[in-house]
Design a protein that fits this description.
By secondary structure, the chain is an alpha+beta fold. It folds into three domains: about 15-80 and about 130-155, Ribosomal Protein S5, domain 2 (2-Layer Sandwich), CATH 3.30.230; about 85-125, no CATH class; about 155-305, I/LWEQ domain, CATH 1.20.1410. The protein is built from ten helices and six strands. It has helices at about 55-65, 80, 90-105, 115, 125-130, 135-205, 210-225, 230-245, 260-280, 285-305, and strands at about 15-20, 25-35, 40-45, 65-75, 85, 125. The two termini are about 20 Å apart. About 25% of the residues are buried.
Length: about 300
């Protein structure tokens, strides 16, 4: 028994349903999931299935790596298993004893079967107690797995839409990051021109002069302090990693693996580099692009919080 696998990322929110009929009766399973940092399962089983609760939770854990899971399992037995069981051996024993008493005491009286079934031991639930637990567990497990398969199909569909949105935001970030890369060198030249003009005006007002080397040294200090080339490179690297993780959500064995937490960590690093770029680069156009990148990252963060 294994739930359906898919190469697409999955949302943590969804619901699934499955029902099955067989010799043991009718089994109905409903499962609903919402986002959660880890795995949390809240199973609700029919009283007659209470002994299987831990097995149901273990099965759900193996098929749903992450999320808050609300799982309901209901079992309706076949009519013949639900009816009380008449122990014919006990009933026959009562009849034979009464026949013996009637013969020995010479009492003329009819034996009323409807009265006999009220005697101790005649009615029992022995047939229910002799259920095949292995067969019952196989019935429960197959229905729970089918419900989770339906759940995962819905979550994969929603995850696909979320992945499309994340890709669109990544493309926007790349556009703004490339623009920042184009602006950054020009920003140094602009600063140098502004500084030279300001210094020249001040010197002219006071009839002074300054060595060009000193002016260039000041420009170099500013250039070193505001250099964002490393941050641009790292943000580009994090962006590529995010897309790679988003597109490749299967392990070496070909099995789907959860990627939500990994993507969340990558987003934290992207936001850190973006903040550094904004604080180091004193340029209005760079700041505008940084704001757009932050807006895209925040949209991505909200979506990633709901990815498995």
């Amino acid at each position: 028994m294994s739930a359906t696998t898919t190469n697409c990322v999955r949302s943590m929110t969804g619901q699934g349903h499955a029902s099955a009929q067989g010799d043991l009766g009718t089994m109905t399973v409903e499962v609903r999931t919402v986002n959660n940092r880890g795995f949390k399962c809240s199973p609700r089983l029919s009283d007659s299935l209470a002994s299987l609760e831990s097995q149901v939770e273990s099965l759900a854990r193996s098929l749903i790596p992450r999320g808050s899971v609300h799982l309901s399992v209901n079992w309706r037995r076949p009519a013949q298993l639900s009816l009380p069981n008449i122990d014919q051996d006990v009933l026959q024993a009562y009849v034979e004893q009464l026949e013996h008493v009637r013969k020995t005491s010479r009492v003329e009286a009819n034996i009323d079967l409807s009265s006999l079934i009220t005697l101790p031991g005649v009615i029992s639930s022995a047939k229910q107690n002799r259920r095949d637990d292995e067969q019952l567990w196989a019935f429960v497990a197959s229905t729970v797995t089918a419900a989770i398969d339906n759940l995962n199909e819905m979550r994969a569909t929603e995850g696909g839409r979320m992945a499309d949105s994340l890709h669109a935001d990544c493309s926007q970030i790349r556009v703004h990051l490339d623009r920042i890369g184009e602006i950054a060198p020009r920003a140094i030249d602009t600063y140098q021109q502004r500084l030279e003009a300001k210094v020249q005006r001040t010197l002219a007002q006071h009839d002074l002069s300054v060595d060009a080397v000193d002016l260039l040294r000041e420009v170099q200090i500013y250039a070193d302090r505001s250099d964002i080339s490393e941050e641009i490179t790292r943000l580009g690297s994090h962006l590529k990693m995010f897309v790679d993780v988003l597109d490749d959500s299967v392990d070496d064995a070909g099995q789907r693996e959860p990627t939500g937490r990994k993507l969340d960590f990558v987003i934290q690093e992207m936001f850190r580099e973006t903040n550094t770029i904004g604080s180091k680069a004193a340029d209005s156009e760079i700041s505008t692009n940084v704001v757009e990148i932050k807006c895209a990252i925040e949209r991505m963060r909200e979506l990633v919080q709901n990815l498995e």
